[in-house]
Design a protein that fits this description.
The chain is mainly beta. The chain contains 3 helices and 39 strands.
Length: about 475
């Protein structure tokens, strides 16, 4: 039997507009009414239609190219998670769209056999005051909204009733997601987390949900930046000195380290082995002297990256490393349109990535591996998501190893320039996958070696 929650009405139920008031939370089933009331409040709004390639380009699922997912995706100050309260990954597809080309869904759609329902979770560090979007489902799907984890006072969107002073229900409206695909709430007191949960998992009538076209309100505009500990010393100095950070202490293993002083340039001396979750260089000129030590970044979500050089539109970022190892899972140079970013691995420096590096992924990015420096990764992508990427490998002791693939020009413009005896090794090389890509090998002993099944399969060299 479907659980029913009574909704206490502080004002009259407006049947024509399809909205009710639950305590301080106004629930809407009509987008025009929701948007009209939201406009009157004066709150700042963001619209999420899942079309922006900068945020969503890595999580596209299509019949032709297959499925690509991430554990969660941050976009416009909101983090988007999948079903089961964020247990499952997220993706976008054409079929999920309400408008435009892309809509959002959980991958997988929960776990029906385990009783884990389909749904979505959205969260923001800055309180939201309004939340509304289109939720399509298979026929008869019934859902609830769980606000800020309150499992007792959830909003049941299957049947909503007014309650009189004696506790008796009246003016009940039986709604399912099939006949009311828009859901919105406004609460001036604010909330940080909304879970949409389909209620019939574990039974024989479990349904699937798809999401699109959200309008979310805030008291003031949310920060599009990654959150973390901020470096504050424009003169540079020791990474481990607490006085150099806005938190008074160097980032811990699960913290993010942010460099964004927009200054004339400075050097950070690492001084010992360090670990953090993520490092972001925004508008800044930063050089890391690793001093023979290793700086390890552990963030594994491909939609977040371990290392970001150039984060959001307007950033002009320069970052270099020398004399030690910078390790992580993924890295990106110029992660958004409107970004210009440059990363250099200088003499004695090693950039070691367990998975991928993307250069010019939306923005204009350059990666330099100079004489005496090394780069190892699984995949290197140069020019992606309409970005422009340039990869320069220079000098007789400059070495790049990509275990699986070097892709030059993958839905963006890509340029690979190797010179002066540089060495590149990869299992495969793709040039101009969807757009234009150029590869130039110049100088004696400059070589690109292709490895297949653990043995040398072919070498392209200039001498």
């Amino acid at each position: 039997m479907k659980k029913k929650t009574c909704v206490f009405i502080w004002t009259a139920l407006v049947l024509g507009l399809g909205n009710v008031v639950r305590g301080e939370v106004t629930v809407y089933f009509d987008e025009s009414a929701y948007l009209a009331d939201l406009a009157e409040t004066g709150f700042v709004t963001v619209f999420e239609g899942f079309e922006n390639e900068d945020a969503w380009g890595l999580v596209r699922s299509t019949v032709v190219y297959g499925g690509f997912t991430a554990p969660d995706v941050p976009s416009q100050g909101v983090t988007w998670n999948g079903s089961g309260g964020g247990l499952y990954d997220v993706t976008t597809s054409n079929g999920a769209a309400h408008s435009g080309d892309w809509g959002f869904y959980s991958s997988p759609h929960g776990n029906i056999l385990a009783g884990i329902p389909d749904g979505i979770t959205t969260a923001s560090a800055q309180p939201m005051v309004a939340w509304g979007g289109w939720i399509h489902g298979t026929f008869g799907a019934d859902i609830i909204l769980v606000i800020d984890g309150d499992e007792i006072n959830f909003i049941d969107l299957g049947e909503i009733c007014e309650v009189d002073e004696f506790g008796e229900e009246f003016n009940c409206i039986d709604r399912s997601i099939q006949n009311s695909p828009f859901i919105g709430i406004i609460d001036p007191a604010g909330f940080n987390h909304v879970e949409v949960r389909e209620t019939e998992a574990g039974g024989d009538e479990a349904q699937y949900l798809w999401f699109d076209d959200f309008t979310i309100g805030f008291v003031s505009a949310p920060s599009p930046r990654i959150f973390g500990s901020q470096w504050i010393n424009a003169a540079g100095g020791s990474y481990g000195a607490g006085a150099n950070w806005n938190t008074g202490v160097a980032p811990a293993a699960l913290d993010n380290a942010i460099f964004g002083l927009d200054g004339a340039g400075y050097t950070v001396n690492v001084g010992q082995d360090w670990q953090a979750e993520q490092m972001v260089v925004t508008s800044d000129i930063v050089a890391f002297d690793l001093g023979g030590f290793t700086y390890d970044l552990t963030q594994a979500n491909p939609a977040r990256e371990s290392i970001i050089v150039g984060e959001i539109p307007g950033d002009n970022s320069q970052f270099s490393i020398a004399n030690g190892s910078l390790s992580g899972v993924n890295a990106v140079v110029a992660s958004s349109s409107g970004v210009t970013a440059n990363m250099t691995v200088d003499s004695g420096g090693a950039l070691n990535l367990g998975s991928s590096i993307r250069v010019g992924s939306g923005g204009t990015g350059t990666l330099n591996v100079l004489d005496g420096a090394t780069l190892t990764c699984s995949v290197a992508t140069i020019g992606q998501l309409s970005g422009d990427g340039t990869f320069n490998v220079q000098g007789p002791n400059a070495s790049v190893t990509a275990a699986n693939l070097i892709s030059v020009g993958q839905s963006g413009m890509g340029f690979l320039n190797a010179s002066g005896g540089a060495s590149l090794t990869s299992r495969a090389l793709d040039v101009g996958v969807f757009t234009d890509g150029d590869v130039v090998l110049d100088g004696a002993n400059t070589a690109l070696t292709m490895i297949l099944a653990g043995s040398a399969d072919g070498t392209l060299s200039v001498g």
